[in-house]
Amino acid sequence: MYAFEPSEEQQMLIDVVKRFAENDVRPVARDAEEGDDYSPDLIEKGWELGVLQASVPEEYGGFGDYSALTGVLAMEELAWGDMAAAMAVMTPSLFALPILLAGNEDQKQSYLPPLVEAEWQPYTAALIEPHFDFDPGDLRTTAVQEGDTYVINGEKIYVPFAEGAEAFIVYASLDGQTQGFIVPAELEGITIGERSKLLGINALPNYSVTFEGVRIPAGNRLGGPEGHDFAPVITSARLGMAAIGLGVAKAAFEYSRDYAKEREVFGVKVAQKQAIAFMLAEMATEIEAIRLLTWEAAWMVDNDHPEAFKQAYLAYTGAMDMAMMVTDRAVQILGGHGYIREYPVEMWMRNGRGIANLLGMAMI
Amino acid sequence: MIDFSTPKPIEKQMVALQTVAENMMRPVSRYFDEHEHEVPWDYINFMHMAMRQTGAGSLAPKEKKSSDEKKKYPPIGYQSLAFMLEMLSWGDVGMYLVTPGGGLGAAAVEAAGTPEQKAKFLARFKGEKPTFAAMAMTEPHCGSDTSAIRTTAVLDPETNEWVLNGEKIFVTAGHKALELSDGFVVVWATIDPEAGHAGMRPFVVEAGTSGVKVTKLEHKMGIRVSDTAAIVLQDARVPYDHILGSPEVIKKKTTKGFKRAMATFDATRPLVAATGVGVARATLELLKEMLAQEGIEIRYGLPRNKLTAIEREIIDMEVMLRSAWLLVIKAVWMADNRKHNPLEASMSKLRAGDVVTKITQRAVELMGPLGYSRQYFFEKWFRDAKITDIYEGTGQINRLVVARNVLGYRGSQLR
Ligand SMILES: Cc1cc2nc3c(=O)[nH]c(=O)nc-3n(C[C@H](O)[C@H](O)[C@H](O)COP(=O)(O)OP(=O)(O)OC[C@H]3O[C@@H](n4cnc5c(N)ncnc54)[C@H](O)[C@@H]3O)c2cc1C
Ligand SMILES: Cc1cc2nc3c(=O)[nH]c(=O)nc-3n(C[C@H](O)[C@H](O)[C@H](O)COP(=O)(O)OP(=O)(O)OC[C@H]3O[C@@H](n4cnc5c(N)ncnc54)[C@H](O)[C@@H]3O)c2cc1C
After folding, report:
1. Neighbouring residues of B309: CB distance < 8 A, sequence distance ≥ 6
2. Which of A14, A321, B229, B245 has the maximal Cβ count within 10 Å?
3. For residue B173, what is the DSSP state?
């Protein structure tokens, strides 16, 4: 039976996240981007909204059941506040969700409660690699089994909060298959590089990390000795990025719409020019179209639908184009002011581009 | 709760409809494209029988359900129609347009008529013979700008009849409604030419009304099996109660009546969008099938810069198609649940218009020399697709509606 309204519980979560995004994140987002970063207090406050905790069952320290859909709804609101803030607040889920979705019982019992029940801690994951044709399904980082250990070698980039991290999920190619490995940060052979400077999301501390002959016990392979299916993990990453794309786009759409209703050109409001009004109509339509696609994909995940993997891929593909199109037009609608850093839209345009490039830096 | 599962009754209905599309439409699709103005009676008679038996696709008033039944199942009438139209248009969108049962004319009666009028005018679709209805707004000098129509309706106090004069063009199924069945055309006319929209009223003009004449059948780029008629009204007389709506709306100089009737579009625009989605799906499926025959499988999951150009195209098409369909579903779901949906209705229509034209145009290109051949359906669907972006409000008009809604503007602020 079709229905398009969030449940009461989902709506409550959306509301608190929205309030945080509006009152706490927005006022400091620009300064954070320009070098201040987000304060630990702000990140902690965001963490306590319970977006991840609501997705983790009680037995593992949370208070809900995993729902990709609920995650998508919350993530859009968080990213509406700021993309980097959303990623920072949700960084621990890069570690927790793969364990929840693909880990074995042992791993869930030992890693989830101490992470989920405590305050925000730098647990993170390393997926992206430094080459143009980076492909999560065909990694250059390798894992090789030696007795009852795995040895990991490779170079990762854009690892959020790698500096000071407690542990990583490191993705590596094991006989050609992408597998996750739980890697405590103190192991030998791990080198944290310089903090990366990016086109956008500069408020998210992220680093290159090299793994040189890093040895982990066989039991640290995600899912145990048998390993795991990578599909649910990458699907969660795609939906996370798609939801962020929706949030960034919504922010840019709303801002440019309101601006166009204020600014006058040739004796009328900018918004009264069809050239602008039609852009706004298309932006609104595009956002809604991709939102429904993303919701459907998340709903499929929650209902074990056989098409979930493909649908999430389509939603993510749609979201990267949608986010670029909408944020580009938002800058255009502001004219010269759109290009000036006193206004937020140029930042959203830089962030919006990242939806396509940063797969694996957020999960829901 | 957000839920994307198709209601069970709709799923059941789809099996039968797919059979119709595959067996009654596709085999004759090319024939009727090449024999414009021939009437596909086999299809029409079959659909009439089938719909009489099942009640599917009809807007005719149903027997009142008990409140128990209502509780058990939320309304899905428009959702069910959207699925039906999508599937029939997957078969052949022109033939879908000649499906008996009322079309836009009945939809207007449904939206603007009183209960008595609905009973009086809609009952005929359940009769022995297939019956058609049409809706006539467009005139030679104006289409999008409906406030400029010149057809007039004047009340003759002697006989208490309305006297209609004017010319309507591009009336879908106008010929079938007036000359091939005992149907009717809902004719928009003005009772006060100075008043713009406030003077406009819909009138039911039945087959056999004297002074009404079909003067022309258009020759078209696509959807050739669907008749597009020009109708001249010359002192055409209809009884007083053929003006749709309640009496006080009829007298007052307000746009209320007009707005209510225009609300028809909130229901029909997503349905037209659904027909576009059907054509787009047909195209994409055939495209994938023919590529598969050449050994080309789409590798979902790869980063885009590792895909081939063809894979990228197909994946883009799938994104467009599915998201357009979901906009349709949301809009009809709102209609079923009596939620105000002009924004969503226009979004679905403009998106479907874009998507079906893009997909069919790209498909012809992608298929190279084969795409251009009349041996395959690609070129036909390319021609059929374009109308989606024109009737029931052009892409531009629907952009205006969406823009006004998101900006909170009245018509006068953005025109
Ligand atoms: C980096 C930079 C350097 C610049 N250098 C110079 C300089 O050296 N000298 C100088 O004089 N200026 C300069 N400018 C200003 C620049 O030329 C203006 O920003 C530009 O002309 C747009 O004007 P605006 O910003 O006021 O936008 P607005 O005029 O307010 O336009 C807002 C939006 O409305 C649209 N719009 C406006 N009118 C219409 C219309 N009639 N129909 C449809 N859409 C319309 C615009 O395209 C835009 O999308 C510079 C700007 C920047 C950002
Ligand atoms: C096959 C077919 C079947 C049809 N069936 C029916 C039917 O059953 N009943 C019926 O009443 N009509 C029917 N129509 C008519 C159809 O609804 C009109 O063609 C349509 O509304 C456009 O009107 P027009 O052709 O007069 O174009 P115009 O209104 O003259 O528009 C010309 C161009 O200007 C654009 N435009 C118009 N106004 C604006 C604006 N304010 N801002 C920006 N751009 C604008 C339009 O989008 C279009 O691109 C049918 C048409 C066809 C081709």
Report:
1. none
2. B229
3. T
Q: Can you give A212-270 as a three-state secondary structure string?
A: EEEEEEHHHECCCCCCCCCHHHHHHHHHHHHHHHHHHHHHHHHHHHHHHHHCEECCEEH
- Which structure tokens are listed for B134? 């049409």
Which secondary-structure segment (H or E) carries B80? helix B77-97
Q: What is the dihedral of CA A279, A281, A287, A293, to 10 degrees?
A: -120
SS3 B75: coil
> pTM here?
0.96
Q: Please provide the DSSP assignment of A147-189 as one string.
A: TTEEEEEEEEEEEET-TT-SEEEEEEEETTEEEEEEEETTSTT
Whole-number Å distance between alpha carbons of B172 and A105: 64
CA A109, chain centre distance (Å): 25
The answer to whether B170 and B142 have CB atoms below 8 angstroms apart is no
AA letter at B409? Y
From CA B132, how far away is CA B181, in angstroms rounded?
Answer: 6
DSSP state of B180: S
Phi, psi of A342, deg, nearest 5:
-70, -20
pLDDT tens digits, residue range A165-205?
999 999 999 999 999 999 999 999 999 999 999 999 999 99
Q: Which backbone phi and psi does A201 adopt, to 5 degrees?
A: 35, 45
Query: Which burial class, exposed, middle or buried, applies to B72 when counting CB atoms under 10 A from its CB (0-12, 13-18, 19+)?
Result: exposed
What confidence tens digit (pLDDT) does each residue in A62-80 have?
999 999 999 999 999 999 9
Beta bridge partners of B152: B165, B190
Q: How far is CA B134 from CA A231, B95, B173, B182, B197, in A?
A: 51, 15, 6, 12, 21
Mutate to test the pocket of ligand 2, among B96, B104, B138 (most ligand atoms within 8 A of CB): B138
Distance B221 CA to ligand 2 centre (A): 15
ipTM (interface pTM): 0.96
Q: Is A263 on the interface with B (CB under 8 A)?
A: no
**In a 3-state reduction of DSSP, which class is residue A291?**
helix
Report d(CA A271, CA A262) in Å as an integer: 8
